[in-house]
Amino acid sequence: MPELPEVEVVRAGLAPAVSGATILGVEVFEPRSLKRHDPLGGTFEALLTGRVMQTPARRGKFLWIPLEGTPRRAIVAHLGMSGQILLREPGMEEAGLLRIRLHIESPRHGELWVHFVDQRIFGSMAVDTLVDTGDGAAAGLGTDEPLIPTQVAHIARDPLDPAFDDTAFAAALAKRASGIKRVLLDQTVVSGIGNIYADESLWAARIHYEQPANTLSRAKVRTLLAEVRHVLEKALAEGGTSFDAQYVNVNGNSGYFAHSLNAYGRQGKPCPRCGTPIVRERFMNRSSHFCPRCQRLRVPREQQAPEAPRG
Fold this sequence. Notes:
By secondary structure, the chain is of the alpha+beta class.
């Protein structure tokens, strides 16, 4: 599934083309791609045709494009497992996977097509209402407005968001006894981190994925947050992680972070830090990858089995 770096690469690629662009027309080829759209507020096509788009914004794995005018609305996109948003020259067709097409007139690039391509149809697009963020800060990266789509309002801020609260994150971990990876994947605690970047961040911080979150010291939490940010920023610099043709930017190009992975997908290969073979274990219908030597599960003293009496 595309995670924060992949979605941010798409947002940054869309921004120059769609900011200030007018939507000339809308074609929906797959109604299932509108599963998050509420038709009671108007059809997807009618709500968009003639509207002017503003700079795209992102929080976690959600991307939205605010629309000018009132009421304040936005196009909300979630890429799901295999979704792509591609900029195309008019007349260019996709290989049978095109779900939605926007015809736009860009002030910088002229007429363009915006294609929503999705092989598995787990992704979606919708027109949604913008509401106040509640904390008065900008809703996410790419926008200065404290307005967020209702579908995204429950999602926590991500670690690259300037308004992310490190202290609140540490307090949330202190209240959770579940394994730290489960907490990192909980988008209501911290957004944008998926399986790949959780494994990479935990490897960098030398933390076992099942280590209870509430057993981490404040220093260890600071280390973990620093490593999460470093991993995400490095992935962004390399265009995201691409294992196949499904993970591409708006021009259809793949990212290169897969070549920089230290743990994820490297089962059986030596740990880059100590040489111990990386282990893969089943985790929440997916997998966790870790070094059994560098990332030992440290059981709190009060949970350790009592020492056997000496006879």
